[in-house]
Amino acid sequence: MRSRKPLLTLLLICSVALASESRLPFSTIFKGQDQFNRLVAKAKTGNWKALPIGERTAAVGQALVGTRYKHFTLEIDNRIESPSANFQGVDCWTFFEIALGFARMLNEPESNWTPERLLHYIELDRYRGGQCTGEYLSRLHYLEDWLHDNDRRGLDWLHDNDRRGLVEDLTRDLGGRSVPHSAREMSTGWRHYRYLASNRSLLGPLGRMEANVSSQPLYEIPKSQVAQIEPKLRSGDIIGVISRERNGLHSTAHVGLALRTSDGVLHFMHASSPSNYGRVVVDDELSKYLYRYRSDSGILVEISVSLSLRQRDPRRPAITLGLLDLVQFREQLF
Q1: Does residue 185 contact residue 251 with C-beta atoms inside 8 Å?
Q2: Tell me: the pLDDT tens digits for 197-210?
Q3: From residue 78, how far is each of 82, 228, 231 by CA, in Å?
Q4: Which of 61, 84, 142, 159 is the most exposed place for a label (fewest CB within 10 A)?
């Protein structure tokens, strides 16, 4: 019988080569080690870990103020999709995403405050079901889809001890109303996206994904009512800005974080595009910011869920669990 060693060796070489081709170099997926190290140092000095998750997220966001705005920071390859972070330049999405992921990372021992661990939390947030498959469309490309997926996984976590989704939608609780909805930005401007321009076969699946997102209800708090609910908002709340298009349909257009300053004013903190400030800024009072742009019709509000029953956000009604669910829930926390 002939030896199978050469065949096994060849299969091993091929599998290693295939694995390496499906991964991007670390220098591609993570940029800004010095900025990251400074942020870790500030977190230790300021004892950010002791803060509630919302205030912690806001603290990270404030530390990123001044970071330059950079378009398409997630378009890092022609084919392979991967969790990534760039501290040298952010857009509105990656700003809040890095702030939230970094804040969650601080729940872990300081020895785990590493770029690799941050990318783990970004993967949980950024991808459908909390997992990047290497495929472009495993990423949650629309804020409302991101919210729906993370909110659903948050409810699953309560009942199944799955920690992959820890975001809750407060929009309806704060008086949000349903608005006509359309998600077509990527199909319309596909030439601007590196992955799509390099692989047009994605356009069909993308269109189906957008149709699914558009079929989901979108709730907004009209900007005329934002001043009334501002006292209920807290630092670190995720604020999605909704715009009304000429055809009467609404879509998510921008995102940032709420920041309540020492004078009690609730500001909008965000990565502002080059046509405005071109960097991360603490902008005007949220309700006033919305009137800067005629097309902005309102907001949606999301909160990051704490991992402790002792820090349950009082703005959400208490969730009634069965006795077994509660015991399992507490075992996961303490």
Answers
A1: yes
A2: 999 999 999 999 99
A3: 11, 46, 45
A4: 159
- For 168-189, b/e burial (b = at least 16 CB within 10 A) is bbbbeebebeebebbbbebeee
Which tokens hold the place of 282? 């603490």
Report strand pairing: 30-31 vs 238-244: unpaired
Concatenating the DSSP letter of every residue in 142-182 gives: SHHHHHHHHHHHHHHHHHH--TT--EEE-TTTTT-EEE-B-
3 state SS of 77: coil
pTM of the model as a whole? 0.85
Are the C-beta atoms of 220 and 171 separated by less than 8 Å?
Answer: yes
Domains of the chain: 26-333 (2.30.260.10)
State yes or no: pLDDT of 235 exceeds 60: yes
How far is it, in rounded angstroms, from Cα 227 to Cα 232?
Answer: 10
Q: Which amino acid is at 19?
A: A
Q: What is the pLDDT of residues 153-196, one digit of tens each?
A: 765 444 444 444 468 899 999 999 999 999 999 999 999 999 99
Residue closest to 93 by CA, chosen among 241, 287, 259, 251: 241
Q: Which residues lie below 8 Å from residue 328, measured CB to CB, with a gap of 6+? A: 161
Q: What residue type is 67 in one-letter code?
A: T
Distance between CA atoms of 186 and 206, rounded to whole angstroms? 8
In single-letter form, the type of residue at position 271 comes to A
